[in-house]
Amino acid sequence: MGIVKIKDKTFKTSISEAEIKQRVKELAEQINRDFEGKSPLLLGVLNGAFIFAADLARELTIPFEISFVKLASYQGVLSTGKVKEVLGINESLQGRHIIIIEDIVDTGRTMHQMIDSLSTRNPASVHVCALFVKPEKLEEHVDIKYAAFSIPNDFIVGYGLDYDQQGRGLKEIYSLVEE
Q1: Angle at the Cα of 171 from the Cα atoms of 48 and 132, rounded to 5 degrees
Q2: Which of 46, 50, 84, 99 is packed most tightly, with the most Cβ within 10 A?
Q3: Is residue 178 very low, low, confident or very high in pLDDT (cuts 50, 70, 90)?
Q4: How far apart, in whole angstroms, are the C-alpha atoms of residue 111 and residue 48?
Q5: What are the pLDDT digits (tens) for 97-150?
Q6: Which of 62-95 are b and which e, b meaning 16 or more Cβ less than 10 Å from the residue's Cβ?
């Protein structure tokens, strides 16, 4: 088990690169079956989901389009309680099948609000594909059709997830070691 130090925190390996690759491949196979004959729009949520979205896209065999959205709910260090789109969607969503690609769903508030926002643009369907879900932290019901891992309420980094903008490039997932 590996240990990494990022700034003032210590993290230990919790999910291996091989496990991540296997689950991404399995999710892609499920999406390929579910969307056979369709061309969904993958909507990656920046910044954390960019690696997951790229790896998932490379495993898909169905036709698809991909775009990205950046969401924010913070001003400084305080949550505003409202999610605002920072980098928007230029594509028409009318009649499209949308698959939101998210790195982690914890409370579900951001995802719930994003689904509500997308639904006003009349898509055929909206589905969530999350790399990580923290079931014990969920406050809003979110139907997550494609989830790679259910994890405890640990602080994690790697594979796109960061601690203070560091650690995104790690190939494995690391959990914070309580000191």
Answers
A1: 45
A2: 99
A3: confident
A4: 14
A5: 999 999 999 999 889 989 998 999 999 999 999 999 999 999 999 999 999 999
A6: eebebebbebeeeeeeeeeeebeeeeebeeebee
Burial of 34 (0-12, 13-18, 19+ CB in 10 A): middle
CA 85 to chain CA centroid, Å, is 16
- Tokens encoding 165: 């903008």
Cβ contacts of residue 56 below 8 Å, gap of 6+?
Answer: 24, 27, 28, 31, 42, 101, 129
Q: Which residues are catalytic?
A: 106
Alpha-carbon Rg for the chain, nearest whole angstrom, is 16
Report the candidate in 88, 87, 20, 30 with the shortest Cα–Cα distance to residue 54. Answer: 20
Give the strand pairing for 41-46 and 97-105.
parallel
Query: Does 76 score more than 60 pLDDT?
Result: no
Only one residue has tokens 């130090």, namely 5
Six-digit token pair at 127?
């589905």
| Average confidence (pLDDT) over 35-43 | 97
